[in-house]
Amino acid sequence: MSDPVLFSLKGRRALITGASRGIGFTLAQGLGSFGAEIILNGRKADALDTARAKLEQEGIATRGAVFDVTDQDQVIAGIEAVEKEGPIDILINNAGIQFRAPLDQFPRNEWDRLISTNLSSVFFVAQAVSRHMIARNRGKIINICSVQSELARPGIAPYTATKGAVKMLTKGMATDWARHGLQINGLAPGYFETEMNAALVADEKFSSWLCQRTPAARWGKAEELVGAAVFLSSDASSFVNGHILTVDGGLTASV
Ligand code: NDP
């Protein structure tokens, strides 16, 4: 059982949404280093080209898939184009946004943008990919959740609502699709130093609160999500389904 082949992703093709930077890019690097061919998704072709060039330099085979995950027609066309070239064995639904504002002033358009980017997109992409996975009777889907799938924080109730829903959508997908050979799990990061959190990282008061609140007493680094993502993408997790794997330095373990 200690065979590293259990964790090998050689011969697998992984589609990662929102992979031009941040957690998505780092997971692309991580899965690529375990042998997967990586299909990077994002909205901007030039940002994807830059990300792909970095991975190719590291010897990772890549392909770009430019589409907006909030647009179901674009998603379906994008997935069909990728599938024409080869199967999507692993899907990581990572694309997401954050918007902070007092709840009583929260703008309607930002509410809509959060729901479509963080929640509807997970349904659109997973549904389009699942049709192919079901036909093959195998496939891995990992939905990026958050500690905010469990915990409320001031100013981000709509974000927490989307991440709570993604958690339950993950369990629902597992309930419906496990019988077709699919494995659908969630990965719930705590607080990580990415562009999404740039303002919080720069905010000393917040950082000091976070370090006191987190048993590991620090921010996470995106590379620290790779092990969990490789586990959920590989044969090592062959009987894990509908599980949310939290990687948060102990944040949600303590009060
Ligand atoms: P970033 O802002 O650094 O990256 C977000 C990525 O999503 C970018 O590549 C962006 O590309 C892409 N994206 C955004 N909207 C769309 C869209 N409509 N279609 C396609 N791609 C899109 O965020 P993080 O890396 O920090 O976050 C990644 C995921 O992890 C998110 O789901 C987030 O909620 C989650 N998460 C992050 C945590 C953290 O601490 N950072 C903690 C918990 C969860 P572009 O804008 O160029 O199109």
Automatic annotation (TrEMBL):
Stored Pfam families: adh_short (PF00106)
CDD domains, per the entry: Ga5DH-like_SDR_c
Family membership: Belongs to the short-chain dehydrogenases/reductases (SDR) family.
SUPFAM superfamilies in UniProt: NAD(P)-binding Rossmann-fold domains
Alphabetized UniProt keyword annotations: Oxidoreductase
Keyword Metal-binding: no
InterPro entries attached to this UniProt entry: NAD(P)-bd_dom_sf (IPR036291), Sc_DH/Rdtase_CS (IPR020904), SDR_fam (IPR002347)
Entry-linked NCBIfam families: PRK07523.1
Keyword Cytoplasm attributed: no
Top-level taxon of origin: Bacteria
Full protein name: Gluconate 5-dehydrogenase
